[in-house]
Structure prediction request, 345 residues.
Amino acid sequence: MKYTTLPNTDIKVSKICLGTMTWGNQNTQDEGFAQMDFALDKGVNFFDTAELYPVPARKETYAETERIIGNWFAKTGNRDKVVLGSKIAGTGDYTAHIRTNGFSKEALNDAVNHSLKRLKTDYIDLYQLHWPERNTNTFGVRDYKNNPKDKWEDNFKEILHNLDEIIKSGKIRQVGISNEKAWGTMRYLEESKRQSLPRMITIQNAYSLINRVFEGDLAEVSQRENIGLLAYSPMAFGVLSGKYINGTAAKNARLNMFSHFSRYSSVNATEATKRYLKIAENHNLSLAQMSLAFVNERPFVTSNIIGATNLEQLEENIDSINVSLSDEVMKEIDAVHSDIPNPTP
Prediction:
């Protein structure tokens, strides 16, 4: 395994992070336990979860993933071996069963306290805001359009003040953002500088061969401001394994179960994936490992969040850390990206 540190800290994390959002829906508790055992044995010391998980979010399964992780900590005593990240859910129609007061002081305290209880731990290493409260072009919307009816009021400083109190209580160590944009990221960073408040050290956004939107403004922000990307969906919901093209996807594969993630199976996404698969085959690589190695090697990536529904997939994904892409492979990848840029924003 390769390791780095969370930016502006001395917290050592594996370059591969174990994603958990299938546990409690596609995966049972026993399967989640097996994945954590296997990942830790392979040197993965960074686990990421959220109160929202498993996905898709439903009242009936709310926070089951955190409970599974907490049960594993209680069973194994491995809490001190893991750098743990979790998140507070943002506001939205499909999170109304969680709470409706956004990132208010009451919401943040409620979310942290309940996550700690479910996770059976006294602290969370990295606590993240799952997505912005304000209206943005997040989740499959390509371009930003201002909504004059957006009732959001600027509260960046207030959120950081409230997070500061929670940090001082010892319940969380560091803070980060997720599904943020360049403007929101810079606002958090500027407020922390001006007010001597906690600094957002990471940003967890989607990033893959078929979604390189982060390379627009956020890659520059990331590198100039030293805020590391925690890349999620590096396999684009399994599309970049090639299993949907090859017809080998299992019945419990994500896109077979959850048709509302249709952007991953659009005409352009499928065509780009076919071309990436050909590149991988021509260079004796699996598409999965080429896709993950691409993410692993980006200079702005702090850790690559991988997910799997079985141990065979998990092993292949973790082993991508040992794959290095040649200049020739990168040139061919960029040629596809030039022809079909970001088909799954």
Observations:
- DSSP finds twelve helices and ten strands in the chain.
- The mean pLDDT is 94.
- The two ends are 30 Å apart (CA to CA).
